[in-house]
Design brief:
Elements (H helix, E strand, L loop, with lengths): L1 H19 L3 E2 L14 H5 L4 E4 L7 H18 L3 E7 H8 L5 H7 L2 H4 L5 H10 L2 E6 L5 H14 L8 H14 L9 H16 L5 H22 L15 H17 L5 E4 L23 H9 L3 E8 L3 E4 L4 E4 L7 H6 L5 E5 L9 E3 L8 E3 L1 H4 L2 E5 L6 H12 L4 H4 L2 H6 L4 E10 L10 E4 L4 E4 L5 E7 H6 L1 E5 L6 E4 L6 E4 L4 E2 L2 H4 L5 H10 L1 H4 L5 E13 L2 E14 L9 E12 L9 H4 L5 H4 L12 E6 L8 E7 L5 H4 L6 E9 L5 E12 L1 H8 L10 E16 L2 E16 L5 E16 L26 H15 L1
Parallel strand pairs: 2-5, 2-6, 3-4, 3-5, 6-12, 13-19
Antiparallel strand pairs: 1-9, 7-8, 9-12, 10-11, 13-16, 14-15, 14-17, 17-18, 20-24, 21-22, 21-30, 22-23, 24-25, 25-26, 26-27, 27-28, 28-29, 29-30
Helix pairs in contact: 8-9, 10-11, 11-12, 12-13
Length: 799
Amino acid sequence: MNRIVTLAFFLLSFITNAQQLETIPLSSPESENYKDLEFLKNQIQQKNVVMMGEQTHMYANIFEMKIRIIEYLHQELGFNTIAIESPMYDIWKMNQTGFEPYTFNKAIFGVWGNNEEFQRLVNYIETNDLKVIGFDSQVINTSNFTDDFFDFIEENNLRLKHDENDLGIIIEGILENLTFDDSDLNFSQFKKEIESIIRQIEKRPNTETNYYWRQFTKSILASANDVYENAEPILSEDFANKQHNFRDAQMADNLISYVERNPKEKIIVWADNIHIMLDNSSINQPIIGGFISAGNYIKEKLQDNVYSLATIHANDSLYDYGRRKWEKTPIKTGSFEDIILKKEADYLFIDAHQKAMDNSYDSRLLSFINFYNLRLNEFHDSYIFFKQASLPKSEKKAITEAKEDTITENKIASPKAEKEKSGRIIRLKGKLIDAANNEPVAFANLIMKDEQIYRVADENGHFELTINDRMFKESSVEISSIGYESKTISLNNLPKEISLNPSFESLAEVVISAHLTPISVLKKAVKAKYKNHSKDDFNYQRYSHIILNTKDTTFIDLDLITKNYDNGFKSEYVTDKRVEQIRWNKNLVGNAYKNTRQFFGYREDPIRYANILHKRKYKKFDLEFVSSGLPEDKGNYIIAFKTSRNKWNYTNRGYPTSYSGKVYIDKASFAITKVVENWETHLDEKEVEKHYSDRRDYQKERSLIIKEENIAYYNKIYNGKYYPSRYFRRAYKEGEYKNGKKVNNVFEINSYLYDYEFEDVEEIKYEHFGEENETLLNHVEYNPEFWNDFNLNINQQND
């Protein structure tokens, strides 16, 4: 009987809450009539800072509703500055030359910059000349930031105790990949150096430039503390935990300091809900309870001058971006979301200071899934409720395309391929060794292109080829590895041990010159990049032959011609392109491949991206002069490189890998004429889970072998400068599963660049995801006359 009475009282209390809870209906986010928002004048009239949150960064109609309120606050209450949860540095850098939509979208995080619905705000800022700032401690363009940082130090004669290059490498690792590289300095040494720089700046005049660099330097320190103290991530379904505290404290400091410098500005803050919580001290949950929001600091400092508006939704499913799937997350009966949902309105405003909000409610405000009992009137001043938070148009389109175009075994397998591979199965096993020293040749390529078979030896040089009778009698395998002469051997004559001859000979430095060493030559080449290679815009045509293969079946064989717009090697932007001609030689997967970004989404230009050519990092590599013995290489220094520093800062890979290669440098000008890069990787089960579990292609492999080759060629083409003339890339991945089954995938692209334009350069605009047009593969139709002529031209050039 007591249980029944208790339950009845519990239900009655929720019914009472629902009856007392006052809400205000809102028009749809698309509406440009603001009459329904007039009540905000009483809420916000005396505030100079309004913080607007979003429950995660994934919902389009939440973006649109926030933008609609921004438009009202600007037009009716005179708010004139947008402070966005994006890098303080990158937006400050953009503001040096004035607001421009494309540059702004690149200066903010991609969840907004690449979002079609968010462009309504971008256009509004431009049309109404609103001021925009960032307040996040993170940085997007880390390379430019690091250069600017040390320029500022030099220009202001700030003292450094440690080597600038060592400091720069650490800063880039922290900001770009959330890693601390302690190869040259330990954390204590680095931290003391940054603190010393901050103290020196604080003693200087409080100019605008000095103010910003003080905040940027404090942001470096916050990011460093974050990376060093939080080496192991806390896995949780909550939106935040104590590992966010360094960042939130610095974001608050960045915003508060700006408000204090600009007291007359009326500022709208765009951020996630968790960063604008006014007081989250009452949380008693073990993980989220350790978090201190930026909003706590802002409220403590600004008191009644700040207002926090959060968004909350009643979706009964959570969207997993990684797998493009909805997972059920039912609304808890009697929860705050459930009570508001029963009002049967699409959009509602809830004032958190009304009497009914003095009660505590179960709510999903702080978690993807979990409902916690919260005093919601302590967290924010008000809430906007969404009956259904909707995904961006681009993601809805991607979901539809993923359902239509999933690459399955049935799609790839063809009767012809199965027939060709039928017959008695033969497994050829062997080992590859270095002819000079009998050491294993690791990760060498074994390719039977006509049979659509690609393999890579393991780290001990062992390999296995699974073939049939016909292949054994008729086919050959080409064996190649960077640094060795290639061999082609008939399968019926394949020995169990195969020797590969080195194609390069190590040279003593004295053979080159008494005054030149590998590091001095490389230093000259890196320093001469601005003289020898273009940092200006240019166009070129690009012919690419693309092959995609899985499980010994080539399912894509494509010839593609694009016109490209390149901003030069110094630019942080990708090369933009337009499809001009296309020829499908083979396509077994229908419309699965639609866009050029599916083929060109990698870092292909080493002069722009490779750390071996980075002005601070090249000296950290192991270097030696080598000779190929080829006549065409006599005019070049050839420097072989490798590194034992197995971190992103040097390898550009987020997982353990062996990175090596060669740099060819013209002896007369010190121009870079060719770069060969090679990554060899073998991940065990724990490493696969650690580095791949959040990726769409994660299949719970027991092990992964990854072999990547990038080769870039540069020719002297215009005004004495060297431009890229050819790119080659092959990426091989072989996964082994717990049942012993192995699955391999190959991506190969071979590109030639021609018809450069340097005077009347055409700017080809970057196309955001979901807004593609000229980058679509069906942008043009197959033109047989063109391809007949093009093939003839290629043959004539080869002759």
